[in-house]
Automatic annotation (TrEMBL), chains A, B, C:
Keywords: Apoplast, Secreted. The keyword Secreted applies. It comes from Oryza meyeriana var. granulata. This is Dirigent protein. It is found in: Secreted, Extracellular space, Apoplast. The lineage of its organism: Eukaryota, Viridiplantae, Streptophyta, Embryophyta, Tracheophyta. Belongs to the plant dirigent protein family. Dirigent proteins impart stereoselectivity on the phenoxy radical-coupling reaction, yielding optically active lignans from two molecules of coniferyl alcohol in the biosynthesis of lignans, flavonolignans, and alkaloids and thus plays a central role in plant secondary metabolism. One of its GO terms (biological process) is phenylpropanoid biosynthetic process. Homodimer.
Length: 223, 223, 223
């Protein structure tokens, strides 16, 4: 299910407090830093004068934040023959012209999508109205089918729990059971987030429907 | 207007000097760090004990750097009917074939652009020669119009003030007054930068011209 | 040649052991951290007081890792006239229809690729089977030729030395001798990596083949 970041902050803070208990008499300051959300320090040559470094690190938490665990992305491709009424994605170029001229596989077929992401496997009542959506593109880049695909998209959260976007890109290696994409940035509730989105094929129905199970974990974010 | 990073470093360095005056016997080291271009962190109440903290944090500054504040991006779309002479963008596929075959909206229409970015709203004298350009793609991913769009592009700086690129991606949610995209990386003057680019629709003229007001803020960068 | 990260980790681990010997009674904990994959930071002289520092800092290292130095990317474009048998890339839209309708340059031509990356300039015996591949897209965004191109792709490592992906995006400014793209994320052996990929045109043969020399350097990664 989709967890709110706030609950995770709680964990993160707990972690910081624990660290604080290893130190003496700096609690107030700690709170201050926490409130300001310091970023991680990197790469300075220092000596014992610099003990406070430890505290700085608390700024960037190392705890994994599962923003969206076991969430499903639905893709209903308009393939130029079926109805567009319930499709959530379409090919950028007219595939008939493209594929005919290629006499080859789906290599080069690029799809633009705006699909719902749901906590269960079932399609939502309304494909247009969901609190979490994935909006972006994928294209097939292998001659053999099933072909690998490359994804670049934004996960758009619009719920009371979370508002903001996570931006994702990477290769979906079909031969692998699970494929890790990179979360390269985020906005609003996910301000400056980075992490990994793990995809797993969950269902394929012919050419016009597939469902991906997705786990999104953040390893860096600001507070 | 477009601020140079150097002006911000100036502020940052002043900060460091101030901190140095609070410490004793670390001047040489400070100078070394300074040479590396470290910048003090904003808003920390330092005393001698915490001075080192400042130094360490300073490797990653939290001061916001407005690389491009109130800058305008111009998009003049070649729609296959108007002239290409002054167009700055074009559709990847022949839209007539695409849209006719879809009997639907602009969903799936992908545009490649190389547009000027200007400090004012007016088009520059030469569309080809400007010191800041946005080069990338966008595509519409919503059936309804005005449709959401997804952007991935590089802001290319080629002025005496700044040289280098910022790489941006994210969803342009048309329903929002302002939309935050992620700055996921940078090169040269913007080496390893990360931040947020905020878009605001500023003008739309039919199908072939729009202007976006853009603010680019960096929250992480190396010096 | 392609260096394995493991060699770098080896250094990192050696570091940790060395540090452990400098501390007293923290060995078990250290092992735990090790299990979590933390690595000591370069150039830090630790003692008991700083054990916490070690754990925290180590999450980020600033040693530069040349993941792929002097590696070559091959692109053999299927231009809809030559054979597809050995092509490694293809245009998303049928270019004849596109370019005819545009009466212009390659502006807007988008190519999907899945090309081999080799340590030498020679094409590999098998274009389909190489341990390092670049899979993604590029498109031309300038009217004049030779045109600038914009790249977004994943470098997929599948060797015994490295397994995982690096995700890259940025502008290839043809006018520059070398062009820096951003490595915005990584997976598996390159978990959470960030850095810069430097491109240099190495060979062009007409419209259907080019070879890029690529250096990939990471400035941030987790272990």
């Amino acid at each position: 299910m989709i967890k709110t970041l706030s609950s995770h902050w709680a964990i993160g803070l707990k972690w910081v407090f624990k660290t604080k208990s290893d130190e003496h008499g700096h609690i107030v300051k700690h709170k201050a830093w926490l409130a300001k959300g310091y970023v991680q320090q990197h790469g300075v040559d220092f000596d014992e004068v610099f003990a406070p470094v430890a505290r700085l690190e608390s700024v960037r938490t190392i705890l994994v934040v599962a923003v969206a665990a076991d969430i499903y992305f639905h893709d209903i491709l308009y393939d130029f023959s079926n109805s567009t009424s319930n499709s959530t994605s379409t090919v950028v170029a007219k595939p008939t012209a493209l594929l005919q001229s290629m006499n080859t596989s789906v290599l080069g077929m690029m799809v633009v999508f705006n699909g719902p992401m749901t906590e269960g496997k079932a399609l939502p009542p309304s494909l247009e109205e969901t609190t979490v959506r994935a909006q972006g593109l994928y294209f097939y880049n292998k001659k053999q089918t099933p072909a690998d695909a490359w994804f670049a998209f934004s996960v758009v959260f619009n719920s009371t729990g979370n508002r903001g976007t996570l931006n994702v890109m990477g290769e979906d290696l079909f031969s692998e059971k699970t494929r890790d994409l990179s979360v390269v940035g985020g906005t609003s509730d996910f301000f400056m987030a980075r992490g990994v989105a793990t995809l797993r094929g969950d269902a394929i129905e012919g050419f016009t429907y597939f469902r991906l199970q997705m786990d999104i974990k953040l390893y860096e974010y600001y507070v």
